[in-house]
Design goal:
binds adenosine-5'-diphosphate; 4-stranded antiparallel beta sheet; 10 strands; alpha/beta
């Protein structure tokens, strides 16, 4: 049986730089996220939020502490970059600030490419996912033919192609106006709950925190719960 915990960070510390310029973006961080739980991470610029996502997403290795994703201890995979990359591709979805789409591919092909790279089914159909994020009618549009909010929707649909158990989202509303920000975070919360995907969303935007099941704050590499 899989555990109910999708992401577990135990006493995670990471230092960067050396000598006088040494910083500790993660200072003894503890965090658990359950399947289907939508957790927001707020905190000032430079607090370590993106570093937290990198460590949870197997893109960076901490100096000490344990990171488990879907029960897998990442330290046991880090000796082989191939194994780690494969684990990441199949189990972890990423959504970035402005969608990070490939300029030459239309919306449907952005999803098809991920399916191909991850050796998904030959008869993969991107339309149900594009429908789920409300953008099926723009399937043939290139990124430059989409608004910021629409690009972000494609980025979210793309993150779900491999059916990841963990979704990591970095400042998804940074390039959007207030109304679109609310729509995008509403969509993320819905998808997280419907699919049972554990979701960690880093944001500066206090106005979208109401959609989160739980909020934690990061300051100087340390995490603390936020009431309310
Ligand atoms: N590769 C790196 N080398 C040295 N310092 C870094 C590196 N990446 C990030 N930092 C520093 O780590 C701290 C946390 O950065 P980051 O996680 O990007 O913060 P946030 O996303 O909260 O703005 C900052 O002080 C930043 O300057
Ligand atoms: Mg950041």
């Amino acid at each position: 049986m899989p555990t109910t915990t999708a992401l577990s960070l135990r006493n995670v510390t990471l230092e960067l730089g050396d000598g006088d310029s040494k910083v500790r973006p993660l200072d003894n961080v503890n965090l658990e996220i359950e399947h289907g739980e939508f957790v927001g991470v707020i905190g000032p610029s430079g607090a370590g939020k993106s570093t937290l996502l990198a460590v949870a997403g197997a893109l960076a290795t901490p100096d000490s502490g344990a990171v488990k994703v879907l029960g897998q201890d990442l330290a046991k995979l880090t000796r082989s970059q191939g194994k780690l990359a494969k684990f990441r591709l199949h189990n972890i979805g990423f959504v970035f600030q402005s969608g990070n789409l490939i300029p030459a591919l239309n919306a449907a092909d952005q999803l098809r490419l991920v399916n191909k790279i991850s050796k998904g089914p030959a008869d993969f159909d991107p339309m149900p996912l594009l429908e789920a994020v409300g953008i099926a009618q723009k399937a043939k549009n290139l990124p430059r033919q989409l608004s910021g909010g629409e690009r972000q929707r494609v980025g979210i649909a793309r993150a779900f192609v491999t059916n990841p158990g963990l979704l990591l989202v970095d400042e998804p509303t940074a390039a959007l106006d207030r109304q679109r920000s609310q729509q995008i975070v509403t969509l993320l919360a819905e998808q997280c709950h419907e699919r049972g995907v554990a979701t960690m969303m880093v944001t500066h935007d206090h106005e979208v925190l109401g959609h989160c099941d739980r909020v934690v704050e990061m300051v100087d590499g340390r995490l603390t719960p936020v009431d309310g």
